[in-house]
Amino acid sequence: MTHWRNNALIHRFDNLADEADRSTVFQPIMEQLNILEMELLQSLQPDQQTLLREWQEQGIALEYMKKEWIYIKGVQDGIRILAQLYSA
Q: CA 55 to CA 67: how far, in whole Å?
């Protein structure tokens, strides 16, 4: 797949991720998670808080990369299916 298509797919994924962040559908769960996170952080020592934050950041980065990979693979599969349908 060409460079511009990859950039377009990544841009679309970023836009959808931003839209999901703003969606009210996820708001109750996000609020619960924020409350639990604050309670957890308050129960930890400062060095443990730092370690937890680093662990969270790495986990979020990994999940983002997985979702982006799945999205791109799905689009590539869709393009292949359409190409086969139009070439038949």
A: 18
Q: What is the pLDDT of residue 2?
A: 66
Angle, vertex CA 75, rays to CA 74 and CA 81, nearest 5: 90
Residue-wise pLDDT tens digits, 39-52: 999 999 999 999 99
Higher pLDDT, 17 or 29: 29
CA distances from 38 to 8, 19, 35 (A): 37, 25, 5
Rounded Cα distance between 59 and 54, Å, is: 9
Contact status, residue 76 vs residue 1, Cβ threshold 8 Å: yes
